[in-house]
Amino acid sequence: MHEKQRVAVEVSTRQAGLRAERTGGTVEEIPKPGARQGLGELRDERPDHRPEPLAPDRVEERKQAQRRERDRAQREADWEQFVRTELRELELRKNGQLGRSLGEPLPGESAAALQRLAHEDRRQAEQGMVSVMKNGAVSYKHVEELSQEDMPSRVAANRSRTTWLKERRDGWIASKERRS
Length: 180
Description:
This protein is mainly α. The protein folds into two domains: 1-33; 62-179, no CATH class. Helix content is 67%, strand content 7%. The protein has six helices and two strands, in the order H-H-H-H-H-E-E-H. The chain has helices at residues 3-23, 36-45, 56-94, 97-102, 111-126, 151-179, and strands at residues 129-134, 137-142. A two-stranded antiparallel ribbon has the order 1-2. The longest helix is centred in the middle third of the chain and has 39 residues, at 56-94. It is elongated and about 95 Å long. Residues 1-77 are annotated as: Disordered.
């Protein structure tokens, strides 16, 4: 017997067993694979027979299972997008993004301090380290150790960094306007 035939027979036998359980009959009463005439006769005996609709609780159960599966798939897609974004931002940091964002030193700032800050950020990026913020405290974690639970902590850390850079830039603009 060919492999495909064997698999088809196994599947048919399993289906016959399940049908026998459902109908309360025996497997012998279920038509054998290839017994098409018997199936036609069964169909002709009950032309008005339609499958019974699922019970309402079963319908709700199925909807909940589908919802859970959709939610799981969405969380997985969100996570994959998050990881891609983290890796892209890590590359930007490796290429000196912070140094470019900092620009010129503000009045009272040391150019050396800004260079150290940019160098440290680049070094951490090269090591694959990203900041996470929990309860207002910043710590660092390797990008490969991040989990879905870290997403809010990463968002908070990015928001804090962006806010600091914007406030610094606004201070730079204000000080430049005062000098003009």
